[in-house]
Amino acid sequence: MADDTGPPKGEIRFMTPFKIADDLPPSQPIPDVVHPDKSPAERAVARFSLAGKKAIVTGGAQGLGLVCARALLEHGVSHQAIFDVDEGCGERAMAHLDSLNNKQDWKVVFKKVDVTNEDAVNSAVGDVTEAFDGIDILLCFAGITESKLAVDYPIESWRRIFDVNVHGSFLVARAFAREVIARNGSGTIVFTASMSGYVVNQPQPHSAYAVSKAGVHHLARSMAAEWVGHNIRVNSISPGIMNTRLSGGPSQAGLRKLWLERSPLGIGDPEDLTGAVVLLCCDAGKFITGTDIKIDGGYTMF
Fold first, then answer.
1. What PANTHER family does the entry give (predicted)?
2. Is 153 assigned a catalytic role?
3. What pTM value is reported for the model?
4. Which residues pair with 139 in a beta bridge?
């Protein structure tokens, strides 16, 4: 990896003016078929294919991140780097993915990375890009939560939430974008926000978490606007209550009852996120940028 981790050399395009796209020919009564050489079944597969793509997944060693990292591989990603601060989870994730790699031709590596450490992030993203000869997809699942009353919230804890959820997302996305721009490539970034960025998720006192996730929404929109001229799409997903270790313990029994009462579709499974994530990363989603997709079981529609 090069020592220079600063902005890439060459022209940096600003938000305006956008690149002027070529106009399409007049539409036909029956639209042209994309990939006319393929059968309908082959076109269906190609629409959501990630064949040959290379990805980085932060927070990908456990929970929601691991499930979505696995989905990328199932849809054809050939090279994937999982970043996580927990080395033990990383080893278990690698063993899990290796157990699924029967006759598949994917390469997965794990790197212990603290997303709040700027130098570590720049180094890891640079090393992976060089090793993989490019990078196409970034999923940002690294995040933390905490329940504290606002009147009692220590400022150090508040800052830690923002360091991981907002600043960490920014640092990894910036490093990814620098590599894509330097190689004159293209890429897609998917941030993990939350329905808590839209609503006050009572009765948990989640002020820091909620505000940080609202910040992730706008970080995605801001970066989408700034990097559209570099062929980088940026979007986010907003999960609702998901069936993870954070929501399934005995201490959460009372809250689970409230969540079930308030969520029309109940509590989601981590697998429920994968459709939206794949959509945002593949050709089927190539006209989507600056968008947040709620995956909340209808929780926020009231």
1. BENZIL REDUCTASE, CHAIN DEHYDROGENASE, PUTATIVE (AFU_ORTHOLOGUE AFUA_4G08710)-RELATED
2. no
3. 0.92
4. 57, 190
